[in-house]
Structures are given as C-alpha cells and as structure tokens.
Amino acid sequence: MTAHAGTTLSSQELLDLTQHEIQALLTEFNLADAHTHQRQSAAQHKIVARLPELWYEAEEGLQATYEQRFIEAFFRLHRQPTALAKNKTLLSYAASISTMVVAMYLKQQRMAVTLVEPCFDNLHDVLSNMGVPLYPVEESALHDPDRIYAELKRRVRTDALFLVDPNNPTGFSLMHSGRKGFEEVVRFCKDHNKLLIIDFCFASFTLYDPELARFDVYELLEESGVRYLAIEDTGKTWPVQDAKAAMLTASDDIKEEVYNLHTSVLLNVSPFVLNMLTQYVENSEADDLASIRDVLDINRVAVKEALQGTILEYQEPIAKTSVAWARIQHPDLTATELQRELREVGVYILPGRFFYWSQPGRGEPFVRMALAREPEMFAGAMKRLREVLDRHER
Ligand SMILES: *Cc1c(COP(=O)(O)O)cnc(C)c1O
C-alpha cells in the first residue's frame, strides 16, 4: 500500500464529505468516514459463523416477523417503550433514505427547514438536492436549557426544525440536562406549530453513559402533541459492512402522508439483513454495548494522547460518539492545509469546513477523526499524525 494511493483525484476539488470519504477509502489510514471498520468481537464472530443459518431462516419466515423482531430488539436496547408500543416505525436501508423521505415530505408541504450547524453535510445536501429551502441555526442556541426556548423563538423562521442528537461531529446532546433541554425544544415547536425533525443516528453511543441516559423520548414527543419525524439508525453502531437498516417514526397527524411517501421509495428491507442485525442488537443488549464502546474508548484515549501538547486540541464532547472533533490552535494553519499534509503521509481526516454548511470558513479551525477503527491501525495513524503535528510549533 502506498501513501499516495488516495491521490487519483487530487487535482480535482472535492465537493462534499462523501467525496473525501471515497478518497479516504483508498488511503492507508482512513479516519474519514464514520462507518464501522473495526473487526468483529468474539461474540460477533459467532454471529458471522451463523450467517448461512440466518440466511435460510429469513428465506423461510415472514417478512413481518423479521421486521417486528428487529424493531423490538432495537427499541428495547434503546429503552424506548413508547416507540415500540406505538408500532408505527418505518424501516429503510439507510438513514439517508429516511432523510430523503423527510425531504420529500417537506417539499410536498412546501416547507422550509432550519437545520443545526455544524452537522454532517449529507443532511444538508439531501435536503437541498430535493429542493427544500434551508436555513442554519447554530448549535450553541441549544447549549443552555434555560435559553433554548428564547433562542429558538428568535432564530427559527421556518415551519420545520431539524436537529441531530447527539450531533455529528461535535457530540453535543440535549440530554446533558436530563429532560429539560429536550422538553424545551419540544415546547417551542408545539407552541409555534413547528415540525420537529430529529436525527438520532448517533444515539446508541450515549446509552450507557450515566450522564446522558436516554429517557423515553417518544413518550415526551407523543404526549406533547408536537408534530415530529424521528430517524434512528444502526449503520454507525455495529460493524456489519454497511448491511444496515434505519427507521423513521412520524407523529400521528402526519404519519399517513409520510407512509405514502415511504412506500413510493421502498417495499421492504432485506429480511436477512434484519435477521442478522437483530443478533447484533441482542448481543449489545447482553454485553451493555461493551463490544461497541471498548473500541471507541481505546481509540479515544489514543487520539487524546497523540494530540497532547500539539497545535491540535481535542474537543471534549458531551456525548462520546464514534468521532473525535479537534481544534487547530495555530494562527495560520487551516484544517484544509493540515488535511493535505496528513494525506501526504497516508492519514485521511476530514476538514471542518464541510460541517459548517452555511459558512464553511467557520469550520477551518476544526478537523474530525473517525474512531470506529481497529485499534492497532488507529495507533499507527496516531503515530503519523503526531509526526506531522510536531512539525508545527505551538
Ligand atoms: C452517517 C449519518 C447519516 C447517514 O447514514 P447513511 O447510513 O450514510 O445513510 C445520517 N445522520 C447522521 C448523524 C450520520 O452520522
């Protein structure tokens, strides 16, 4: 493997994070995409060994059985009894497909949307490519639960508000204040008749964090009477080579329209994939998500150590997700330049500008590094990262 394997498109400007991530897949130390590239744990190996059995089982059974088992296991793990009891969650192949359905709904209703910034640029791109007008709201508007209501009232001018919790890349979560932050967002949306859209794709990472324990969010949503759409995902949690499934749940007042859009996109997710994912979810229930968290914890320690005393400052997140967010402390080194230097030595990280989708310049001090990687490879990447950082004086 050469350090320059990823330079095939180097003369062409990369237009979004996914194009960076595609280049990173060719690179020795790919810390770009937040997909799961770690190996299987011992218990997960046993699931892989049973794949033929899971295949034939899914061939024999009813689609509805595998859907129900998967949804039950997922919401049980996530401690969301209300979502489970409501029994109205729609499955799709990927979170981006669920987001596309959300975008189709917004377009159909001629709604504009206010989307949190920074966030993963794919959300912005899907919405914008579907022709939905978008406006940013700074994540900082959500930081103080006592100010959320007033901040949103002042800033949100559209009919819909789109949040990501925990946020990708910053790891910010409304749950840091218990129920209060979330309650305030819901109260604002209810009082002002806003559609609340929440992307929970990173939620599994906070499940066993005592500070952030996820309460029954769907109970709050349902009982408040707020109009909502909630996206859940498996793709960033389990190492299943992107054989993932995502879920979309809508409040009763709009669920029929959303269902009609959903069925225009897909019939069903593969019962084999659902059967397999159910095993992974149940395994995580049995080990309190240890196989997921352990890898991330090891790599988080490694990145903090590697950055110690350098110009790149680790940003302590509220939610410990599968990405690390760091800030450059140097008067004239930009993330774009640092990303280029690292790429030359075979380490691919993402520059922050794409996460600041309305004002890319504000992302220039930041970079994001993915943690869902084999720790041995990650340690190698950290060694090279450190060598490059040591070229720059603090
Ligand atoms: C990755 C990601 C998505 C999209 O997931 P896909 O599996 O790529 O469709 C959506 N939201 C968040 C927060 C993500 O991190």
Give a verbal description of the structure:
With 394 residues, the protein is α/β, with parallel strands linked by helices. The protein folds into two domains: 15-34 and 289-389, Alpha-Beta Complex (Aspartate Aminotransferase, domain 1), CATH 3.90.1150; 45-286, Type I PLP-dependent aspartate aminotransferase-like (Major domain) (Aspartate Aminotransferase, domain 2, 3-Layer(aba) Sandwich). Helix content is 43%, strand content 14%. It is built from 15 helices and 13 strands. The strands form three sheets. A seven-stranded mixed β-sheet has the order 2-8-7-6-5-3-4, sandwiched between helices. A four-stranded antiparallel β-sheet has the order 9-10-13-12. It has a two-stranded parallel sheet with strand order 1-11. Helix 8 (148-155) runs parallel beside helix 9. The longest helix has 18 residues, at 290-307. It binds pyridoxal-5'-phosphate. Pyridoxal-5'-phosphate is lined by residues 34, 94-96, 120, 122, 164, 168, 199, 201-202, 233, 235-236, 244.
First and last CA, distance: 32 Å
- Poorly predicted residue ranges: 1-8
In total, how many beta strands?
Answer: 13
Instruction: Give me the oligomer status.
Output: single chain
CATH topology of the largest domain: Aspartate Aminotransferase, domain 2
Computed over alpha carbons, the radius of gyration is 21 Å
Mean pLDDT: 94
Largest sheet, if any? 7 strands, mixed
Number of helices: 15
Strand content: 5-15%
**Secondary-structure arrangement, i.e. CATH architecture of the largest domain:** 3-Layer(aba) Sandwich
Element order: H for helix, E for strand: HEHHHHEHEHEHEHEHEEHHHEEHEEEH
The domain count comes to 2
The CATH class of the largest domain is: Alpha Beta
